[in-house]
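FIELD: query
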Amino acid sequence: MADHHTSQRQLFESQPQWVEDDARRGTIATVVLPDGVEKPLDYQVPESLVPMVEPGRRVRVPLGRANRERIAYCVAVRSGELPSSPLKSVVGVEDDSPLLSSRMLDLTQWMSRRWMARWGEVLEAVLPAGVRLQRRSRMAPLLVATGVLPARKPTASQLQVLAAAATAITAEELSRQSGASKAVISRLLRCGLLTQAGLTERSPKSGLVKNDRTLISHDRPEHLSPAQSSALEAIRTPLRADRHETIVLFGVTGSGKTEVYLQAVEETLSYGKQAIVLVPEISLTPQTCDRFRARFGSVAVLHSHLTATERHAQWREIAAGRVGVIVGARSAIFAPAPRLGLIVIDEEHETSFKQGTAPRYHARDVAEWIAKAERVPLVLGSATPSLETFARCLRGEWKMCALANRVGGSQLPAVLTVDLRDPKSRSLGAVSPRLMAGIKWALAGGGQVMLLLNRRGFATHVQCRACGHAARCPQCDIALTLHQPGNRGICHGCGLVSRLPGKCPACNAPELTQRGTGTQRLEEQIRVCFPEARVARMDTDTMRSRGSHERTLDAFRAREIDILVGTQMIAKGLDFPAVMLVGVVNADAALHLPDFRAAERTCQLVTQVSGRSGRGPLGGRVVVQTSTPDHPAILAAASHDYEAFVRSELPIREALLYPPFGSIVRIVVRSVNEQAVANWAEHIADQLRVEVATRANPVALRVLGPAPAPITRLRDRFRWHLQVQGPDGEILREIVSKVTASLKNPDNVAWIVDVDPVEML
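FIELD: result
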C-alpha cells in the first residue's frame, strides 16, 4: 500500500515529459558586438523580451566573467532546443524599432567578408552616430504651469513664461515663445511654479539642406545633345523595367554628365522612387550639390559638418520616404531609402570613395551590391574612369556611354607642354616664361587663371648646403615642409610643428637653403609678378574653417578673384566660364611615387584640372610643366586622349597581375620597435608562403615582401608592409584570413589588412 502511495506521489510530483521538453526549448538571439569579440555570440531571450528582440535592433547583453553589460547588434533570432550548457540571457533592448533592415544586415555581413573586417565594425560604420544614440536621449520633458501663487510678485519675464506654459510645452519651445532664458525657466521649476508633465520626443533639426548660398542658375535645357540623349535612354531602360544594370558615362570635362544625372533622377522621382547621388567630397563639390538643390528643392545633403542630431533627423526623413534625393559623400550609400530607384556616383575614379580606416570598403563596390539587390540602375560618371571600371566595360560586364564633346559647342582647350629639363624653363623660378606669358594673356583678355601645384607649404624641405642634411620630423620618416610666416617646419604626416633652426643641427653650418616650391611660395611669387591681380590660395592650410571652400569658390565665381592657386582640390568638378588659363606647375609631383597607380592618378589629375579651362565664350588654354613630357600619362592628358593612356597601361597591369587583372591584399605592420616590426612582418610572410604552397595553382599567387613601407616611420611608429597578389580575390582573402586567424599577435606590434588598397604609401 505504501508503495502504491509512493508511486502515486511520484506520478503527480514528477514533471511530465512534455514539460521537460518545453524547458529545454527557448528563443535564442545571435548578436554581434561592435568591438572586441570577433565572432557572433548566442544569448537566450527571456520570455518577457521575446516580442521586442528582433534582427536589426540593439540589445544589452552580459559579457565575460564579470558579466559586464554591453550593447550588441541582434543579427538573428531562432526558436528551438537550448544547448546543454546554459546560455547567458539578454538583459534589455535598446531600440523601439530595428535600426537595420534584413537587407542591410546581409550587406554588412558581405562587407565584412569582402574587406576582411569585423562584422561589428561594419555595423558601426553604416549607422551614423546620431542614429546610434539611445532613445531616451531623444526625449524632452514637457513643462506646465502649476497655478501656484508665487511668494513674491513675478517679473514680466516670468509672467510671459507662465502664460506660455498654460498647456504642456517643451523647455525649448517655451524659451522660444516667451523669449526667456533657460535660467529663468529653471528658476521657475525650482520654485514650484512650473512642473514636469511627462515626456515627448524631441523635434530635431531636419538636416535638409538650406538654400543659404546663392545658387547658380541651371535651368533645364530645352534639348540634350545626341550623346546625352543616348546616355539618358541607357539609364531609363533598366529604370523602367525595374532591373539592375551598371552604366558608365565616360564624358570629357564639360560634356554635360551632370545634366544626364539630373534628368535620370527626375524620372526616378516621377515613379515615386528615391535616388542616392554620391560625390567625392561635399565641401569640394558645392556646385554639384547646388544644381541638385536648384532643380529639386528639398534635398538631403549628408556631410561631415552635420551634428549627430541633424544626421539622425535626416536618417528618419529618408527612412520615412519623405526625401526623394540624397546627395552625399562615401557613407551616404548606406542611407535607408525604402523606395530606392537609382544610384549615381559622380567622379567615380576618385580615391576618396575608398575608406582609409577599418572597415576599408569601397563605396563603388557597395553601391553595386545594393543596386543588384534592389534591382536598380547604377550610374558611374567620369572624364577619367578608373582602370577597374574601364576594364569591366571592355569585358562587357558594364555598359559604357561616351560623351566625346562639350555641350554648347565649346572646344576642349589647347594644351602646351613645357619641358622643365630645359634651363630656360626655370629662369623665372617655379613659373616658366611660357606659363607667365599665358597668365598675362588670360588677364589681359578679362579672364581668370587657375594654377595647380599639389604641394602645400612654402618650400618642400630645408637642406644644408654644406653637408646635405635635411630637416626631418622626429616622429616620421618625412622631411619637414617650410611654412611661413614664422619659419615653421610642419610634418604633413603627423602634423608636428617646430621652429626651424638657423644653423644645421648636423654640422652647425649656417648655409640652410629652401628647396622646392609649395602653394604658399607660388602664391607669393604670383603676387609679386602680378601686383594688380587679386590672388587667393586653396589648400588644406587655408581651407580649415567651416564654409571656407564655398566662400572662396563663390568669390571666384563672382569674379572677385583673378588668380586661384591651389592643390588638387581646385581640380574637382568646378565650372567657371571665365577661366581662360589653367597652369599645371609640376605635373610630375605624384608621377614617381612608389605606387602602381601613380601614372593613372597623374593622368586623371592633369586631365581633370585641364578641363576647368575654356568652358565659356572666351576660350581657354592649358600649360603643363613637366620633366617627363614623353610619359604616356602626360602625353594622353595633353592630347585629351584618356583612352590612349588606358591602352598603354592595361598591358602593364596585366603582366604584373595588378588590378584590374588581379587582386591585392596589403598588410601593414606597425610598432615603436623597429626590429619587432621587421621580425613579425617576416613571420607573417613566411606563414603566407607556406599556405600559398598548398594551393592548386601556387604559381599564380605571389607574396611580395616584407619591406619597409615607403613612409617607413609615421607618428613614431615604424612601418613594414607586404602584399599577396593573385587573379582571384576570394582565394587571396581566404589565404590571408586563415593565416592571420592562426597568429597570436605580439603585445608590442599591431597590423592592418587592406583589401584592394588605393594607396601604397
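FIELD: remark
DSSP finds 22 helices and 30 strands in the chain.
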